[in-house]
Design brief:
The complex is a heterodimer. The relative contact order of chain A is 0.11. Chain A is mainly α. Chain A is built from nine helices and two strands. In chain B, helix 1 runs antiparallel to helix 7. Chain B has two domains: 51 residues; 223 residues, 2-Layer Sandwich (Alpha-Beta Plaits). By secondary structure, chain B is α+β, with helices and mostly antiparallel strands. In chain B, the strands form four sheets. Chain B has a three-stranded mixed β-sheet, with helices on one face. The chains are: A mainly alpha, B alpha+beta.
């Protein structure tokens, strides 16, 4: 590799790093579609801008992954000064299928590692969103965030009516 | 009987009888310490995470092709239903293999929800009690049953310490027992989690290898001081169960039997059951021996061949 090539590579790397840090805020989405799991319910059109305006620190939702330090005492011992990670999207860490045989086997091999009990994507969404909504009196009903699909209506037997058996006794 | 005298035969029978009686309990004890298949699967139910949405009930209904419910699965008024003069909450039956109940524990400022289904014991009492051998504990951890051989005797319903098996009372001619089978046929044996686990929005149900779930459960208790009572219900209870529970309040406040003991139900009857094969194998031979002896003494033995053979050996006895 010639000196010129090395120089070019270094400069390109510098530019990339600089753009990365400068555009961190610009990269931040106004809106995020949380719809990879949508089936019985529609996906959620998440108003990211509105939620960031609520003034909470990024780490309130993104843990330590955005580069802002976390305040959770269980995380801080390792992640007080953690750098931003490559992708801060929820599904970069929380898998959609946490009970697949492959994932369970991998877990088995690393049982004593931190984060082995990490929730899957669906639980991560619900804990993060509903947990905060409860604390801040936000909406907490299922359909407050995502409308139920026709398949969902069918699944929950929305058409079932209880006319003859109300207050039935015995088993 | 040609090479052995009747006296020696009888002596051997008595000795065999004694040996079986002595050896019996030892063998039964070994059977009573089975702690589950090493790679058996389980579910860790975290009561602190359940929000009572009843999605698991809906998923079970669909997966097992159960009849339509009286009310939609998102109707939470079912939590107000009680039976037997208000003493009993909902329990699984032929139309629902799992139900969620709501509790208002004294030690909690908010209600807790508890999902009820078969706990898939390591040593199931239903299996022990079934005289047609309809039940099987599979290597994956599920307690399944064969409805084709079930005769509908309901012994398992009496034996089950968790009141789980339901009965198809609606069927006049072929009533059988019905219960949760851990989605064994459609999911578990193919390496998939049961339908209820799959649907849970809160991951209140964690599916995994039973031995891993014990470690994860203890880790949760340790990582979140104050959130849980320091106990995994089902780790040891009644010999251990594949479904286990974490709770923020003492278990009796959410409808669990707090002290079912750690002995599997079969230990209550194993001493007796251990003697059954002995009785079946030895008593017929022994009493036939007594009978033949008595007949011989009375001089009524009309089996010529036998008589010829015995005359040579035992002539002195007569």
């Amino acid at each position: 590799m010639s000196a010129k090539q090395v120089l070019t590579t270094l400069m390109m790397a510098l530019v990339l790093v600089a753009t990365g840090s400068l555009t961190q805020a610009a990269d931040m989405p106004e809106q995020a579609s949380l719809d990879t799991l949508a089936k019985l319910f529609d996906g959620v059109e998440f108003d990211h801008a509105m939620h960031t305006d609520l003034g909470e620190d990024c780490s309130a939702c993104h843990h330590h992954t955005t580069g802002t330090g976390t305040t959770d005492e269980r995380c801080i011992s390792c992640h007080a000064d953690s750098d931003e990670v490559a992708s801060v999207a929820c599904n970069a860490c929380h898998v959609a299928d946490p009970f697949s045989a492959e994932y369970i086997n991998r877990k088995s091999l690393n049982l004593y590692q931190y984060h082995v009990d990490m929730p899957g994507l669906k639980a991560a969404y619900h804990w993060n969103c509903v947990g905060c909504h409860e604390a801040m009196d936000g909406p907490t009903g299922c359909q407050d965030c995502h409308a139920r699909t026709a398949e969902g209506d069918d699944f929950y037997r929305a058409d079932a009516s209880d006319t003859s058996t109300s207050g039935k006794g015995g088993h | 009987m040609s090479g052995i005298s009747r006296r020696r035969f009888l002596a051997a029978s008595v000795a065999g009888c004694a040996a079986t009686t002595l050896a019996g309990p030892k063998k039964a004890l070994a059977a009573g310490s089975f702690t589950g298949y090493s790679d058996g699967m389980g579910v860790l139910v975290d009561l602190t995470r359940c929000i009572g949405c009843r999605s698991c009930e809906a998923a079970c209904n669909k997966e097992q092709n159960l009849p339509a419910p009286d009310r939609p699965f998102d109707d939470q008024t079912v939590f107000d239903e009680t039976f037997h003069g208000g003493k009993q909450k909902r329990r699984p039956d032929e139309n629902a293999y799992t139900v969620v109940n709501r509790y208002n524990p004294e030690s909690s400022d908010h209600p807790l929800f508890r999902k009820v289904q078969c706990n898939h014991c390591n040593e199931p009492a239903c299996l022990s009690s079934c005289f047609v051998n309809a039940y099987t504990k599979t290597k994956e951890g599920a307690v399944v049953y064969n409805p084709k051989v079930c005769v509908g005797c309901r012994n398992c319903m009496i034996a089950c310490p968790f009141n789980i098996p339901g009965y198809s009372y609606s069927s006049a001619f072929d009533p059988v027992v019905k219960k949760c089978i851990f989605c064994h046929e459609t999911r578990l044996k193919n390496g998939l989690p049961p339908a209820c686990v799959d649907i849970c929005p809160q991951e209140a149900l964690t599916f995994g290898k039973r031995r891993d779930l014990l470690k994860i459960g203890n880790q949760r208790i340790q990582t979140h001081p104050g959130r849980y009572v320091d106990h995994i219900y089902g780790e040891k209870e009644l010999g251990g169960t594949s479904w286990m529970y974490l709770s923020s309040v003492p278990f009796e406040e959410v409808g669990f039997d707090p002290n079912p003991g750690n002995e599997p139900i079969i230990n209550n009857v194993k001493d007796f059951l251990g003697t059954v094969p002995m009785v079946l194998a030895i008593w017929p031979a022994m009493f036939t021996g007594f009978h033949l002896l008595a007949k011989k003494r009375d001089g009524h033995d009309d089996h010529d061949q036998d008589a010829d053979q015995h005359n040579g050996e035992e002539g002195g006895e007569q």
